[in-house]
Specification:
The chain is an alpha/beta fold. The protein has a seven-stranded parallel β-sheet with strand order 3-2-1-4-5-6-9, sandwiched between helices. The protein has a two-stranded parallel sheet with strand order 7-8. Helix 1 links the parallel strand 1 and strand 2. Bound molecules: nicotinamide-adenine-dinucleotide (NAD). The site of nicotinamide-adenine-dinucleotide has 29 residues, from helix 1. Nicotinamide-adenine-dinucleotide binds next to helix 1.
């Protein structure tokens, strides 16, 4: 799918990857953009920059996602592309408080489910649409220092696979975005950490990968080429892969 003339909605649009996607979609000639985030002030700035409609939204709340979809369709028109992109990253293990586990689950998984619930059937009925769900390379591999992130991003990949299987035949395209480190607020101060082992990608360069992959309607978007090798290594020999990840953990400890 080309973005030219399309109506797109993006969550987590106030910063980082979401903001880069907003700028790039605008540059590609998108007809209208609905930009959603919990951070209202920063969101307003991005919306003003790209002429988008700012819709304050807490993606953990189904009512907010429904409002985002309803307002966008009422004020801009039928949504062609919906990017479920908002995210957080908390460092820690199984001892993270339940509330933190729940927030990660809501943001990384339920938000994607709410968007699909209120939009995928409509897209299917209209004969097409595109859901672009931001997961992470950690959803295919792991983040050695964040259990909440690793687990919920795996679930995000699982849900995107399920959507592609169930809606692909109805003309709804699905992509899952699985980058390694990207220079955003989320990775600020983590340049030397385990996450940026293969380098820190600029958000603008990542947006270029997304545009290309959307053009090809590829399910899996891995802007860092190494990720494909890593997942092949993982599936070829799980124990060897776990051993490699244990060595990585020893080297980087509990840092970021
Ligand atoms: N930066 C990376 O290295 C990296 C790598 C892989 C995947 N990702 C994923 O990319 C996505 C974007 O992250 P980023 O790197 O641009 O980080 P970022 O912190 O720059 O942006 C995340 C945005 O999500 C918003 N957000 C957080 N909770 C929200 C909520 N409940 N409701 C609405 N908005 C909310 C924040 O306000 C922020 O604007 C996330 O899903 C993240 O997990 C990032």
């Amino acid at each position: 799918m080309k973005l030219d003339g399309k109506i797109a909605a993006i969550t987590g649009a106030a910063s980082g990857i979401g903001r880069a996607l907003a700028r790039r979609f605008h540059g590609e000639g998108a007809k209208a953009l609905a930009l959603a985030d919990i951070s209202e002030e920063a969101l307003a700035e991005v919306a003003a920059e790209v002429g988008g409609l700012a819709i304050p939204c807490d993606v953990t709340k189904e009512v907010d996602i429904q409002n985002l979809i309803d307002r966008t369709e009422a004020e801009l028109g039928p949504i062609d592309v919906f990017c479920s992109n908002a995210g957080v990253c908390n460092i820690g293990g199984e001892d993270a408080p339940d509330a933190e586990w729940q927030t990660n689950w809501q943001i990384h998984v339920m938000a994607h489910i709410y968007a699909a619930r209120h939009l995928a059937p409509k897209m299917a009925e209209r004969g097409g649409g595109y859901l672009v769900n931001t997961a992470s390379a950690a959803g295919l591999l792991s983040h050695v220092n964040s259990a909440t992130y690793s687990v919920t991003k795996h679930a995000a990949v699982g849900f995107a696979e399920w959507l592609a299987i169930n809606y692909g035949g109805q003309g709804v395209k699905v992509s899952v975005l699985c980058p390694q480190a990207v220079r955003t607020a989320m990775t600020d101060g983590r340049e030397q950490g385990v996450a940026s082992l293969d380098g820190m990608m600029e958000a603008e360069d990542l947006a270029e990968h997304v545009i290309r992959a959307m053009g090809e309607e590829s399910f899996l978007i891995t802007p860092h080429g190494e990720v494909l090798d890593y997942i092949q290594g993982k599936t070829a020999d799980y124990d060897r892969w776990i051993g490699g990840m244990q060595r990585l953990k020893q080297k980087y400890g509990n840092g970021i």
